Amino acid sequence: MEKQNILTAKAYTLVFLGLVILTLVSTGLSSFNLGYLNELIAIVVAIVSAGAVLSQFMRVKLDGGFARLLLAGVLALALLIFFVAFVG
What's the pTM value of the predicted model, to 2 decimals? Predict the structure, then answer.
């Protein structure tokens, strides 16, 4: 039998509202000049949004080990790009 985890409409609504709030935060902060913190905050908001989408809508946590390995590889690539762009 397959693993199934069916979310309620309330859970989908809460995730949707969270994503809307994160979008508003991201666009609102772009109007302020915070120096290098603008990019850092935008990256953090994007990671949190992607995590919410992956965990709730794409059900990565219910998939097998390959999906987790693929996700870890994408995260490692994102960290590499971050360090090359901002630290180096």
Answer: 0.66
Phi, psi (rounded to 5 degrees) for 19: -65, -35
Return the residue matching tokens 């508003």: 24
Helices (H), the chain: 9-29, 37-52, 65-82
CA distance linking residue 11 with residue 41, whole number of Å: 26
**Calpha distance 60→66 (Å, rounded):** 10
d(CA 15, CA 49): 10
* Whole-angstrom distance, CA of residue 87 vs CA of residue 13: 38
**Euclidean distance between CA atoms 82 and 25, whole angstroms:** 21
| pLDDT tens-place string over residues 52-77 | 887 777 776 666 777 778 778 888 88
